[in-house]
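Blinded run. Sample ID left blank on purpose so nobody reads anything into the name before looking at the predicted structure. Input follows.
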Amino acid sequence: MENKAATRDWIAEAKVIAAEIEAYADRHDAEGSFVSEGYARLKEAGFFKALVPDELGGGGADFAEIFGAIRILGAACGSTALAFSMHTHLVAAAVWRREHQAAPTEGLLRRVAAEDLILVSSGGSDWLESAGTAEKVEGGFRITARKPFSSGCEMGDLLMTSAVYDDPEAGPSVLHFGVPLKAEGVTIADSWHVLGMRGTGSHDLVLDRVFVADAAIGGRRPQGKWHMLFHVIGMIAFGSIYSAYMGVADGARRRALEIARTRTPDAHLLHRVGAMENAHAAAELALREMVDLACAGQPSQDTTNRIMICRTLLGDAAIETVTRAMDVAGGAAFYRKAGLERAFRDVQGARFHPLQKEPQLAFAGRVALGLDIDG
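Blinded prediction complete.
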């Protein structure tokens, strides 16, 4: 059977889409409106099912290709890239778990391909503790929760989320499940009024006693403890998410160099450009390792530790790249038309994904000292 992935150049297609959506980025930023054009183009081009294997009806792309596409999109519109990365990492994790753990994710992947589903993640706001309550009722659970940072929810189809069930035998347990965004009791709260990444539409999703059947519970784990599921998520998700921030840094660097080339270089300008180049290279090196681990790593606490170290290094370096780009551009950077002030605001989001710097440092310290990571 012919491999569809071999007939498609996802990077080239991303470049075409990036050139188209760049024209909309400033308007969505100014309005705080969702990047609907970018999502529509990505859907039209089959990007939302790109990672689904050929045999399940998808595009058969590999992780590195689509993470690379996210990076390209990020240079044009950070919000489109970041929102798309949230769908991407959910599909990527489902693909990895099917291939390496024989996990029962095939049904979800077939639906993503056949129905062109857009998945929405609440993982960044939930993490190990989760949020919301699951009340046991006949045949399933009633879920009551508020899920912030639900990127892409305005065009999303299925929320992949969790809630806490006070299990009388096992104690507080986190249940994982999917909820259709059109299900009774699910509403979008207009809450995304923020500094940067304004076009991601990362509103709060409110679940008011939403019914989830027992058969729809995809996993259970003890609340607040590291679980193999999170080592899988950690290994895969952050290469996807931080590709968007790398793209923002790429775009800022490009615009700064365009401005710098119109000027006579002096020692100060050369120093500023050199500092920007160092920061950009540091971010790129961290991303390279994150993508390599997503493609060929094995989930474990050591892999998670390495990913989280790279997440901090890349985030810091991407922020520094954009900051240095503003120094390179000088006063021109202060004008919105230069695109650098939007990049400066968008890249600040790299600070806030888990594990944030302080918890990441503590995690790295525990691993280095041989301590229990759940301590």
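Unblinding after everyone has recorded impressions. Strands lie at 119-121, 133-137, 140-147, 158-167, 171-180, 186-189, 204-213, 217-222.
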